[in-house]
């Protein structure tokens, strides 16, 4: 990846990268190359960046986080979607015991039939507004995600791997609800420091901030999303696949004393169920960059990560580090 020479790493703010108007078919253009370099630099030290993306309208964002998500969490059926036997993190629902956080997740949200089936478990009579809003958001997010994945692979000199790589991915969308008791007058950690295990997460906050990201200097950065921006974070799967070229940052959610409720939507890429071996390409292994992680099956790692690996300081290294 590109060097970070000249970047002010003391600036406690995630770099901002504008991808508005860029198209996946125009990657040879000068504008594409400039933005690609900014992303490469940001991911080396921060493991993330704030992406500006005007293709997702304020109206769609408001419909999703101002109407759809609050209504979803007001439904009793939403809290009964899953059971404890599901795969941690990738099941229908996700909790963190001891913390005021609850999320529900939908895999394959780019298929209307999957969204409708999901909606019918919450609204037996169906909910067209929910389905159409989620599908429209997913279509735009999928395009953004593919641009980011493409730029990362190009920065690594692996553009020829893009087609096979993108076909090996699944998409997921997670609706998250963070809350605290109104009697609690202080700041509260709603979700403790953690790393995402997936490839890439794109976090959509709405009116209420709270996401904080730890940089490689062990400093916490408060994200300051704009009305047209999203926070992009690298996960452990991409860190391992790139042989450590990408930094997977710790992040957390903090609710300040004025906030009792926060909603967010997280759009992610994960390995497919049938092609989940994480194995660094040989092009990324040399004398200067020896192999850091043995090949592993992603979903086996997930089971470890959220059971005995939950107490590891670095679960990925403990599980498959060389």
Layout of helices and strands, plus pairs?
Layout: E1 16-18, H1 30-45, E2 48-52, H2 58-74, E3 93-95, E4 101-107, H3 112-122, H4 128-155, H5 162-167, E5 169-179, E6 188-194, E7 200-205, E8 211-214, E9 220-222, E10 229-234, H6 236-241, E11 251-255, E12 261-271, E13 277-278, E14 296-297, H7 298-305, H8 315-320
Parallel strand pairs: 1-2
Antiparallel strand pairs: 2-10, 3-4, 4-5, 5-12, 6-11, 7-10, 7-12, 8-9, 8-11, 13-14
Structure description:
Helices cover 30% and strands 23% of the residues. The chain is an alpha+beta fold. It has a single domain, classed as Sandwich (Jelly Rolls). The strands form three sheets. The protein has an eight-stranded mixed beta sheet. Strand 3 and strand 4 form a beta hairpin. The chain is globular, with a radius of gyration of 19 Å.
């Amino acid at each position: 990846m590109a060097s970070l020479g000249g970047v002010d790493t003391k600036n406690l703010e995630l770099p901002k990268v504008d991808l508005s108007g860029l198209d996946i078919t125009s990657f040879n253009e000068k504008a594409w190359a400039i933005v690609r370099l900014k992303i490469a630099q940001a991911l080396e030290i921060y493991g993330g960046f704030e992406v500006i993306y005007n293709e997702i309208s304020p109206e769609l964002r408001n419909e999703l986080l101002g109407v759809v998500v609050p209504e979803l969490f007001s439904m009793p059926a939403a809290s009964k979607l899953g059971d404890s036997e599901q795969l941690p993190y990738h099941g229908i629902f996700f909790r963190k015991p001891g913390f005021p956080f609850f999320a529900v997740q939908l895999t394959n949200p780019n298929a209307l039939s999957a969204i409708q089936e999901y909606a019918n478990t919450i609204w037996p009579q169906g909910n067209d507004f929910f389905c159409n809003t989620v599908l429209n958001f997913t279509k735009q997010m999928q395009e953004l995600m593919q641009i980011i994945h493409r730029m990362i692979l190009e920065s690594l000199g692996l553009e020829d791997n893009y087609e096979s790589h993108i076909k090996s991915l699944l998409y997921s969308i997670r609706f998250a609800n963070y809350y605290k008791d109104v009697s609690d007058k202080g700041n509260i950690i709603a979700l403790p420091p953690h790393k995402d295990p997936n490839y890439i997460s794109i976090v959509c906050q709405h009116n209420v901030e709270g996401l904080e990201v730890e940089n490689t200097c062990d400093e916490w950065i408060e994200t300051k999303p704009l009305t047209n921006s999203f926070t992009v974070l690298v996960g452990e799967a991409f860190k391992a696949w790139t042989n450590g070229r990408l930094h997977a940052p710790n992040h957390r959610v903090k609710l300040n004393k004025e906030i009792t409720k926060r909603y967010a939507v997280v759009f992610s890429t994960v390995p497919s169920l049938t092609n989940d071996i994480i194995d660094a390409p040989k092009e990324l292994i040399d004398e200067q960059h020896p192999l850091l992680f043995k090949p592993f099956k992603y979903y086996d790692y997930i089971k470890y990560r959220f059971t005995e690996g939950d107490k590891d300081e670095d679960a990925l290294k403990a599980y498959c580090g060389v």
